[in-house]
Amino acid sequence: MANEKKMDQVILGLLSHESLTGYEIKKRIDTRLKLFWSASYGSIYPTLNSLEKEKKVTKSGASKGGREKYIYTITEQGRDSLREWLEKPVVKDEFRYETLLKLFFGNEIGEEVTIEHIQNFQDKIQEQLPFLRASVEQLKEADEEKTHQYYMLTALFGKMIYETYEQWCEIAKQSLSETICNEK
Amino acid sequence: MANEKKMDQVILGLLSHESLTGYEIKKRIDTRLKLFWSASYGSIYPTLNSLEKEKKVTKSGASKGGREKYIYTITEQGRDSLREWLEKPVVKDEFRYETLLKLFFGNEIGEEVTIEHIQNFQDKIQEQLPFLRASVEQLKEADEEKTHQYYMLTALFGKMIYETYEQWCEIAKQSLSETICNEK
DNA sequence: TGGCTCATGTAATCTGTTACATGATTCT
DNA sequence: AGAATCATGTAACAGATTACATGAGCCA
Fold this sequence. Notes:
The first copy, chain A, contains 7 helices and 3 strands. With 184 residues, chain A is mainly alpha-helical.
């Protein structure tokens, strides 16, 4: 009973919103799910194939011109399977913050380097925050479509967490630079 | 050039604080690093063996009685290797929030079930928050030891993030239950 | 014409978990 | 005496990434 792979559910979930190609699925993951999920082509395409064999999606070869391009659509069976998973309680949320690992062991390398790691972390956050804030505002207004509310709540989650990251970065940098001063 | 396994660095980092057995390493990960890292025996013991072969740690069989028990100690070479890694910029922080995945696709299953997922998430957070808050306070005072400051900052990170999680949970539950009311 | 984006896919490899196997010691 | 904790380790398997291979369409 292995860790129950979730790629199946991610793809079915995205296809429950709209029919997509493998390439578009990757883009959705890299934009809309970016805050809490990631995946590579090497797991997307094989999963699409297995989902088709299980009749949870259908593949339609809409090759415009001679170029290969397949649009995947969720089936009723696929929707049932997705709902079944959605009903089950969450098994586990997982995090691997390399940044915090380097911080935890920071004593071995010193404050200057550690502050730099925190700064890099903060830079990435500041880069994404404006987009996140705009997304939340935009999604709050667009409440005609029902999926928007769910999307908005994940964006809000991201916004709130990122703002907290930022506050923490300031405190952590401050704390470490004080230590440097006391040493001198 | 694969994803650069970090188990090596985690173990070296923990051993840079104090000599430990494999079993104790697991405990440290499950308590002090819990907020941002995890690992199983199946990866700890093999890593310890390979680190010994690379002369980054030494193994001393302190078998009290006839019971097998090995205490691992970091070598200078191990410390160099750890520092080398600590100096390099962070490659990637990774998250996999199954909870947010179920939320994002929540439209397919409805508000009630989704609220339950959020509630479960919140319950876990509320369970851990008191301990986190106490840790931060305790670590703030104990500033004799230098490693404590780094430990404290990770605990503070956890505390701040968990408090934000909680606030978000309240907002999200509210938002979804309003939708239920409007439907009726 | 050169570069970017669209588009699909596989093989090698990595990394880690799960489940199992085993047994001593300590606490109640 | 029995349960919980201390303690080590491996084999099978799962799940995913990376790197490679390939090529069409579009824009400047």
